[in-house]
């Protein structure tokens, strides 16, 4: 069971959270604090459901108990970058049950990647991220540069390295 109160920076209740993993979770906005004969009570507006349990797919026990969402994560999609892991040929072989061929191809892809990495001069620069210092923690981080979605819209992947070729 989930039950809680979300407060603002002054400690005033803003939302109630209720529910459970077996059914649903709702948030309830607190609209006012009412003082009456029985003490203080919170006046609320009707709840908003923010999550609902989805039953697993039939035969999910045969598929690692994956949810529908997890089962769809590796589905192919038109217009994806050539570096998207859904384009991994070894992964496709594995999904087809061709374990030995998948393993051989994986090893060949890794060897080709090591060779390409050794040929990189100057050091490889990420295509979709820029390296910078986090202003709060002062640690190095990578920030998404926003260009991926523009390239996806145009189907312009010429900046991508060909990482799945042997």
UniProtKB/TrEMBL annotation:
InterPro entries xrefs: OSBP_sf, Oxysterol-bd
UniProt superkingdom: Eukaryota
Any one GO molecular function term: sterol binding
GO cellular component, one term: cytosol
Sorted UniProt keywords: Phosphoprotein
Protein family according to the UniProt entry: Belongs to the OSBP family.
Protein name listed in UniProt: Oxysterol-binding protein 2
